[in-house]
Amino acid sequence: MHSRRFDKETFKETVKDNVKVLYRKTIEEAEPQQIFQAVSYTVKDIIIDDWLATQEEYRKRDAKTVYYMSMEFLMGRALGNNLINLTAYKEVREALNEMNIDLNVIEDQEPDAALGNGGLGRLAACFMDSLATLNYPAYGCGIRYRYGMFKQKIENGYQTETPDNWLKDGNPFELCRAEYAKEVRFGGTIRFEKDGETGKDIFIQENYESVRAIPYDMPIVGYGNNVVNTLRIWDAEAITNFSLESFDRGDYHKAVEQENLAKMIVDVLYPNDNHYAGKELRLKQQYFFISASLQAMIAKYKKRHNDIRDLHKKVVIQMNDTHPTVAVPELMRLLIDVEGLTWEEAWDVTSRTCAYTNHTIMSEALEKWPVDLFARLLPRIFQIVQEIDRRFIDEVRTKYPGDENKIKAMSVIWDNQVRMANMAIIAGFSVNGVANLHTEILKNQELKEFYDMMPEKFNNKTNGITQRRFLLHGNTLLSDWITNKIGDGWITDLSKIGNIKPLVNDEQVRREFMQIKYQNKIRLAKYIKDNNGIEVDPKSIFDVQVKRLHEYKRQLLNILHIMYLYNQIKEHPEISFYPRTFIFGAKAAAGYLRAKETIKLINSVAQVVNNDRSINGKLKIVFIEDYRVSNAELIFAAADVSEQISTASKEASGTGNMKFMLNGAPTLGTMDGANVEIVEEVGLENAFIFGLSSEEVIQFEQNGGYNPVEIYLNDWELKRVVDQLMDGTYAEGNHDMYKNLYHSLLDTQNTDRADAYFILKDFRSYAETQKKVEAAYRDSHSWSKIAMMNTACSGKFTSDRTIEEYVKDIWKLEKVEVPTGQE
Ligand code: NBG
Asked: How many angstroms separate the CA atoms of 682 and 219, rounded?
């Protein structure tokens, strides 16, 4: 921050004042949490002026705005990031130092805003950062869950979940904007009338329940450009306009019900990643935030425009997966029933406004709502969905006469279910996948019929991540070093990081690079010691797999391989083995049994291996509790090896892979998702690739021909590892503890296919490639080149690039320059 905007002495005084006003304490008496609040309010004060100036500039320019609709925003902590983007981090650290306050300690007081599960939610958060940094008008729209992603504890090796009460100390950065509250209605019946004067159809919802949606705004600070965008998350309140009389009339019950409905709707984030649970409350959440956001969007538009038929010229709606796709019929409803447009006019606006991003081909993630539930909860919306479907089916019949398979594949309502993805594709003007391979699979397999019928809608937008959080904030040593070598242009233009490529041949430079990695490993080792009580050797290879726990991500492959290494070391103590620390971090959805069994297995293997003195510390296994954005920043900075080992075709993109790469950890992975593009950028010689290709996987899935039992019977070392799941080795003698995992690999006792994720098939190839990793690491010259080349080649994977592509191909926004709001 430039001195004209930031005065150290004023800052210090304000912090002291805030401590006094908020807590009636002096700074010496205040708890760290209280200082965190006081500092945050001081920073918010600085942000507010820019926030006002930004919104004023958008208004003056009447700029087109993207509404990024998402059930999830996995923001992490705000304070450090806001300071970074205000370019005030170092000055604030200094100011606090002068008050004997350590900024790191203060940052650690902030709970993560964990309003998301994994990659999908974190992508939304990175997009918010990039939009603001690139001067684009944007709203993020979501839900202010009272409880975010659960807190994970490991007890006796098992995951336990406790509620994440992230708002308990208050959220200093948010603003409640009660004046923009909106009513959202559920259920009831629809009465139909004809307007006597105009002859138009009128639909009246009766006997409904409703809640009031209250927006809370969080500032999204752009990097060094005075822009402050808004993340608008909605809270729910009961509408209590009943009179005391109504109690006498027996309406008390209804009032309490409304109260409960409001509480329930925003209570908690569903903790499923890549999995659809089909719960009624989830559909309520979706409609709740969509209806409120669209009402607010239209109200804002109408303040300055009088023809709603031009709405698409000023707004564009990006639907982050199918979760927000009820936006399509809700926008139709608002345009027809409230704004009085004809169906054709409303459709014209809606289909030019909505765009859809697909994030997965996993069939269990596809949202399909039972018709009876959908129609009961959203009666008017269901009528509109039926009409969208009816008109679309007419179109299909005209284009493909007699081909009922097309209707089976593409209609919205089928088999008594409402298929949300189909509605999004039919109504949206753009459909994108999140990595090249993923988009190709959508076009050629999953969404083939749609692609054949409307190829012009399909496009790819390879994901990206923000270097401001995952390098500038998370890895200060490396970011200072890079800036020192090539200047700070990379902070807003990551392609410039390529300028360190020529330095890769300088041995001294590489030594510096590895020294930084080593320092970051020491920092992580300390975190592990403090949080897990395990000593790890920062000189060992830090081999890391952190992500949600899911069978397709194959944490099971990783741990089976570790069991195999352990057997080898025990049997041949003489073979040379480079010490390795295997680091895991993963949350399992509370009801996902095999995922939870995998966590227990990892921890049990850790228990045995870490306490076996005979292996001389050659192997260590650490399961980091409560993996989340804030500790992820430490983990990426310290990793030597990035495990990206999903079954090819299953990981739509991955974004953790990019964060590792940026921080100088090569990928050990399959040719899946964005790994393919990472290898394109960094070169095969700087990555460790193994396993079936996506074509091979799809081929097996479609035509059969894979028999894991054959592999099991013919590979005795692998057989031994698999048998160890059942012989009690890692189960304190309990033979049933991992039986679900065991059966999932070998038979169809509780899964559709034996080894559906090709773990046994890829095992040998993985083990061989792990050997290559070890050999490469031993040669520290070549390893430092590999590591540094990963950082140097990561330029493509900034979310700034991704956002520029969305803007150019889909959103068509213009940059708005904002003068500073200070002075
Ligand atoms: C996830 C994919 C990831 C991808 C993120 C962000 C869902 C439904 N999909 O591979 O599994 O990186 O989305 O696009 O959570």
From this structure: 36
Give catalytic status of residue 769 as yes or no.
Answer: no
Residue with tokens 């203060």: 106
Ligand 1 centre distance from Cα of residue 121 (Å): 9
Among the options 547, 628, 650, 785, which is catalytic?
547
Question: Which residue puts its alpha carbon closest to atom 6 of ligand 1?
Answer: 120
As a whole number, mean pLDDT of residues 362-376 equals 94
Q: Which two tokens stand for residue 486?
A: 């090539």
Establish whether 93 is a catalytic residue: no
Pick the catalytic residue from 368, 548, 650, 796.
Answer: 548
Mutate to test the pocket of ligand 1, among 68, 122, 270, 274 (most ligand atoms within 8 A of CB): 274
- For residue 203, how far is its CA from the centre of ligand 1 (angstroms)? 38
Is 526 part of the annotated catalytic residue set?
A: no
C-alpha closest to that of 433 among 460, 452, 451, 454: 460
- What's the CA-to-centroid distance between 360 and ligand 1, angstroms? 6
Residue tagged 């070549």 (tokens):
782
Vertex 556 angle, CA 554 and 557, to 5°: 75
* Alpha-helix residue ranges (DSSP H) falling in 315-378: 327-333, 343-353, 371-377
Mean pLDDT for 225-232 is: 98
- Listed as own residue / partner, the contacts of 329-332 with beta carbons closer than 8 Å and 24 or more positions apart are 329/378, 329/381, 329/384, 329/385, 329/388, 329/423, 330/287, 330/290, 330/291, 330/294, 330/381, 331/294, 332/384, 332/388
* pLDDT tens sequence across 284-333: 999 999 999 999 999 999 999 999 999 999 999 999 999 999 999 999 99
Distance CA 253, CA 257 (A): 6
> Is 620 known to be catalytic?
no
Does 553 qualify as catalytic in the annotation?
yes
For 540, other C-beta atoms within 10 Å of its C-beta total: 20
Side chain identity, residue 363:
S
pLDDT attached to residue 5 = 67
Q: How confident is the model at residue 249 (pLDDT cuts 50, 70, 90)?
A: low
Structure tokens at 221: 């600070």
Nearest-atom number in ligand 1 for the CA of 652 is: 10
Q: Ligand 1 centre from 539 Cα, in Å?
A: 33
**Whether 550 contacts 121, CB under 8 Å:** no
Catalytic residue among 77, 457, 553, 801: 553
**Does residue 548 carry a catalytic annotation?**
yes
384 backbone dihedrals φ, ψ, rounded to 5°: -70, -40
Mutate to test the pocket of ligand 1, among 318, 319, 359, 797 (most ligand atoms within 8 A of CB): 359
Cβ(802) – ligand 1 distance below 6 Å = no
- pLDDT tens figures, 715-760: 999 999 999 999 999 998 899 999 999 999 999 998 999 999 999 9
Gap between the terminal Cα atoms of the chain: 14
Q: If DSSP states are collapsed to H, E and C, what string results for 81-144?
A: HHHHHCCCHHHHHHHHHHCCCCHHHHHCCCCCEEECCCHHHHHHHHHHHHHHHCCCCEEEEEEC
Q: Token digits for 695?
A: 């074509």
Give residue 442 CA to ligand 1 midpoint distance, Å.
14
The helix (H) or strand (E) run that includes residue 452 is: helix 448-453
Atom of ligand 1 nearest to the CA of 357: 14
